[in-house]
Design a protein that fits this description.
The complex is a heterodimer of chains A (672) and B (193).
Chain A (H helix, E strand, L loop, with lengths): L5 E4 L2 E4 L6 H7 L23 E4 L3 E4 L10 E3 L3 H16 L15 H8 L23 E3 L9 H9 L6 E3 L6 E3 L16 H5 L5 E3 L3 H8 L5 E6 L1 H4 L15 H11 L3 E4 H22 L5 E2 L4 H10 L13 H17 L6 E7 L3 H6 L5 E2 L2 E2 L3 E4 H10 L21 H5 L5 H15 L17 E8 L2 E9 L1 H12 L7 E5 L19 H15 L9 H11 L5 H7 L14 E4 L8 E6 L2 H5 L2 H14 L6 E6 L11 E3 L2 E3 L4 H14 L4
Parallel strand pairs in A: 1-5, 10-11, 10-13, 12-19, 13-16, 18-19, 21-22
Antiparallel strand pairs in A: 1-2, 3-4, 3-5, 6-9, 7-8, 14-15, 17-18, 20-22, 21-23, 23-24
Helix pairs in contact in A: 9-11, 9-15
Chain B lengths: L5 H6 L15 H6 L1 H15 L7 H12 L4 H8 L6 H10 L11 E6 L2 H5 L2 H12 L13 E6 L11 E3 L2 E3 L4 H17 L1
Parallel strand pairs in B: 1-2
Antiparallel strand pairs in B: 1-3, 3-4
The chains are: A alpha/beta (672), B alpha+beta (193).
The structure holds iron/sulfur cluster (2 copies) and FE2/S2 (inorganic) cluster (2 copies).
One FE2/S2 (inorganic) cluster binds next to helix 20 of chain A.
């Protein structure tokens, strides 16, 4: 017996080992108390009342909200509790749109599981809610408020972990829903498409947006040659959908399944990840040598990039200009594959399988198109692929493993560990340390950068150079670091950011993790896969080297930039009308001056500028000729404070420069 | 949270109007330009409350006093200095029934459309009001925000049908003519004020 204090749980003595509530104590003891609104990584909400337990002398309480005390006598399924839980579920079901058989969340729905577990057989209550419109606006997610049970998990995930705050509870009483500000659609606001809300949602109210039908259509079109790239994290996630252990490496069966589905060529995003490392590490070493734009932030996570574009204008120049591996692959495949495969470029369809919902958004950005066509035509999540495999009736576990196609299916371990938090950093080190020292690197593993913590740091020396590194996951952590960088309070050289917990292996496109340790198992799967490969450094990938010779030219050179790099743009956070501050009327002859009050410009004092400008215009009696309004972001936050006058933009605007511009403009336009 | 240094937070008050304690007393401005005055007042409200997100509710209350409702653009604007997201501000604003998200008139006319009133031709009164005030079922508030016209189902005064409520005051056995009279009276009174 250990020295931990104990309590009695269903007649059994169990230890208390610092758990924050009774629910955790019970789970440690192997009793899974049902919950809707509890997530070990989020704050405690205590609203669903499913986690009820009976404490002797205290009666029935919500176990998620009660700290364990020594000597407590706790029971988890008395008759009364069973009845209460069942009523809760029935009440939830009464207002829940019951389209379970066709619901995208059917496989992972906790509402269904719990109804089964708790033996709910009929619903004694009547539906009281009106049908609400389903939000299809986002390219990454579908939001169906009719299936929402108001547990608030999504709200807390989006705010507490991602610091995006795109959704919240709105209205009250029976009208309450969860949604974006002002009843807008998800696509009109700050949502960065990370999908964390969908991962934590216990029902089908938030689900990844499927692209399965479009992919089937192309697969069934004999004209088309359909190729697919598979991201590193998919190989250690897909098995879970077929009852295999999390983290089991399923590369071979994955390829076999894709071939059986009709994909003509199966390639590896890890090939492009090798390429990404070479480009990104080279860019990093150049910046390090020149001492500029440091720390360099990674740019392979599209949620992070959108987040930085919206919320971190000050560090946007510090982001690597590298495209993500998905988009590097897409650009390269568009250019090289028609010749390699001897096909008409028109008929080449490029699909990716990703652990991620944000990759759907990324693939649809206009900047990632070649000749008006997206470099990546369709993005499937791991979950969607599992659905297709099932639909086709393939017995995944019985498939005979196959290998990827060449050349774009060849990779080193560097491109594989990309899928775990710390993996990008480690891959960069495998390249950069060798480059800096000029000596062949014998050690491959950089254990210093591995780990599960959501904010980690490491210092690595390479010859005379010391590299200070930080690895974060969760965008709130990233935001905190970015703020520190903007204030000059930290001296990192490289900061790796991934939005999802644990990195891509924890992406919202993966099968919903059943246990907390699932993510760690997937991560160790990736490191295992690295071990199992012959090569581990991206510079050893001879097919990547060949690609530079035949198509890309120099590393970081002109052609490489065209195909492999991008620019990041300031992005407005919300579509909202502006605010007229002075002289609103229907007189269209007025000179229209608009001052930006978005976050970036606000921080640079656009607000005082607006006030001062209004004042001066009034003092000079020009109110009848000038109209002043405020708006929220011109998407040029790095040059703020910004003012727009008619068609002209005034960057880094001051009261005097704005005033001069206004006078000049008024002189040019005679009074009507 | 957004990195907003104290210096910038203070910037919310460095505008011209704050030499006079509130936007209201800044006579030349407010008399000539409603929007400018309102905007300055919002800034003043934020300043008085130290841009403190914990004071969101009093801030919303004061803003509603100024605009008589909570305009979307204003909520978007205040989110930044309060270091909140628009969705969070909107969430709080919609939680309390006291807050109006659509413009609301100084005078709310509630016309009963319960069975008794309906039978006694409340529809005619409604149409007369709609026409006189240039509002309709969708746009319930006059552009000068003096009146909002709403229908309610049964005010529980069927004996007086048709019944009309102006703010708290009840009028019984209303005819279209009588309703318009009441409205005209208010307009005249407001003009004099
Ligand atoms: S996808 Fe991410 S950013 Fe968008 S609402 Fe969900 S949690 Fe928030
Ligand atoms: S959308 Fe899902 S996670 Fe969010 S409150 Fe509704 S049921 Fe809970
Ligand atoms: S899990 Fe405890 S109240 Fe919801
Ligand atoms: S905040 Fe984006 S341009 Fe002003």
């Amino acid at each position: 017996m250990d020295n931990h204090p104990t309590l009695t749980l269903n007649g059994r003595t169990v230890s208390i080992r610092g758990e924050r509530n009774l629910l955790e104590v019970a789970r440690q003891a192997g009793i899974d108390i049902p919950t809707f609104c509890y997530h070990s990584e989020l704050s405690i909400y205590g609203a669903c009342r499913l986690c009820l337990v009976d404490i002797e002398g205290r009666g029935i309480v919500a176990s998620c909200s009660v700290a364990p005390e020594p000597g407590m006598v706790v029971r988890t399924h008395t008759e009364e509790i069973r009845e209460l839980r069942r009523i809760s579920l029935e009440l939830l079901l009464a207002n829940h749109e019951q389209s379970c058989t066709t619901c995208a969340a059917s496989r992972s729905c906790r509402l269904q599981t719990l109804c089964r577990r708790l033996g709910v057989e009929k619903v004694r209550f009547h539906r009281t809610q009106k049908e609400r419109p389903v939000d299809h606006s986002s390219v990454s997610l579908v939001r169906d408020p009719n299936k929402c049970i108001l547990c608030g998990d999504c709200v807390r995930a989006c705010t507490e972990i991602q610091n995006v705050g795109a959704i919240d509870f709105i209205h009250r009483g029976a009208e309450t829903t969860v949604g974006p500000a002002f009843g807008k659609n998800l696509a009109e606001g700050e949502c960065v498409n990370c999908g964390l809300c969908a991962t934590v949602c216990p029902t089908g109210a938030l689900t990844p947006k499927p692209e399965i039908d479009a992919v089937w259509r192309d697969l069934n079109d004999p004209q088309k040659t359909v190729v697919v790239q598979v991201a590193p994290a998919v190989r250690v996630g897909i098995g879970e959908a077929f009852g295999l252990e999390p983290g089991s490496i399923e590369t071979g069966r994955l390829v076999a399944a894709l071939k059986a589905l009709g994909f003509d060529q199966v390639y590896d995003t890890s090939f492009a990840a090798d390429l990404t490392v070479i480009e990104e590490a080279t860019e990093f070493l150049q910046r390090k040598a020149a001492g500029e734009r440091l720390p360099q932030f990674t740019s392979c996570c599209p949620s992070w990039v959108k987040f930085a574009e919206q919320f971190c204008p000050e560090v946007l120049p510090n982001l690597s200009t590298c495209r993500s591996p998905q988009q590097m692959f897409g650009a390269l495949a568009r250019v090289t594959l028609p010749e390699t495969l001897g096909i008409d470029p028109e008929n080449l369809v490029i699909v990716s399988v990703m652990p991620c919902t944000a990759k759907k958004y990324e693939a649809k950005l206009p900047k990632f198109q070649t000749g008006g066509r997206p470099d990546v035509d369709h993005v499937l999540t791991t979950q969607e692929l599992a659905v297709m495999i099932e639909e086709a009736g393939l017995q995944f576990r019985q498939l005979e493993p196959q290998s990827m196609d060449m050349p774009l299916g060849f990779k080193t371990g560097a491109g594989v560990i990309f899928g775990a938090s710390g993996g990008v950093t480690e891959a960069v080190l495998r390249f950069a340390v060798e480059k800096v020292t000029g000596v062949r690197l014998s050690r491959i593993d950089f254990d210093e950068v591995r780990g599960e913590g959501s904010v980690r740091e490491a210092t690595i020396s390479a010859g005379n150079t010391t590299l200070k590194l930080a690895m974060v996951h969760g965008l709130r952590n990233a935001h905190d670091l970015a703020d520190k960088v903007a204030r000059g309070e930290c001296d990192y050289d490289l900061i790796e950011v991934m939005a999802c917990p644990g990195g891509c292996i924890g992406g919202a496109g993966q099968p919903v993790p059943k246990e907390l340790q699932t993510r760690a198992q997937r991560t160790s799967g990736l490191y295992q896969a690295d071990k199992g490969l012959q090569l581990h450094k991206p510079q050893e990938n001879h097919l990547v080297a060949h690609c530079y010779q035949t198509c890309l030219g120099d590393v970081g050179g002109h052609r490489a930039h065209e195909l492999l790099h991008t620019t990041h743009q300031n992005r407005r956070r919300i579509n909202s009308r502006g605010l007229t501050v002075l002289g609103q009327d229907n007189n269209s002859d007025k000179l229209k001056v608009t001052v930006c009050l978005g976050t970036g410009c606000f921080l640079r004092g656009s607000h005082s500028l607006l006030n001062a400008l209004t004042e001066r215009i009034q003092q000079h009696g020009l109110k009848d000729r000038v109209q002043v309004s405020a708006t929220f972001c011109f998407e040029a936050c790095d040059r703020g404070p910004n003012v727009r006058m008619g068609e002209t933009s005034l960057f880094r605007c001051t009261l005097d420069s704005a005033w001069d511009a206004i006078l000049k403009e008024l002189e040019a336009t005679p009074v009507a | 949270m957004d990195n907003i240094s104290p210096a910038h937070e203070a910037s919310c008050s460095t505008g011209p109007a704050e030499s006079t304690a509130t936007g209201h007393t800044s006579a030349e401005l407010s008399a000539t330009d409603l929007e400018t005055q309102q905007f300055n007042t919002v800034c003043e409200i934020l300043r008085r409350n130290n841009n403190d997100p914990a004071r969101l509710i009093p801030i919303l209350q004061q803003i509603q006093k100024e605009y008589r409702y909570l305009p979307e653009e204003v909520l978007t604007f205040i989110a930044t200095p309060l270091r909140l997201r628009p969705a969070q501000v909107f969430g709080v604003a919609t939680f309390y029934s006291h807050f109006a998200l659509k413009p609301h008139g100084k005078y709310t006319i509630r016309l009963c459309d319960g069975t008794a009133c309906h039978v006694r031709r409340s529809t005619g009164i409604l149409n007369a009001l709609y026409e006189r005030l240039n509002v309709d079922e969708e746009r319930k508030t006059t552009s000068d925000q003096l009146f909002t016209v709403e229908t309610v189902s049964c005010l529980g005064a069927c004996g007086l049908a048709p019944v009309m409520l102006v703010n708290e005051k009840v009028y019984g056995q209303v005819t279209p003519e009588k309703a318009l009279e009441i409205v005209e009276e208010i307009i005249v009174k407001e003009k004099q004020a």
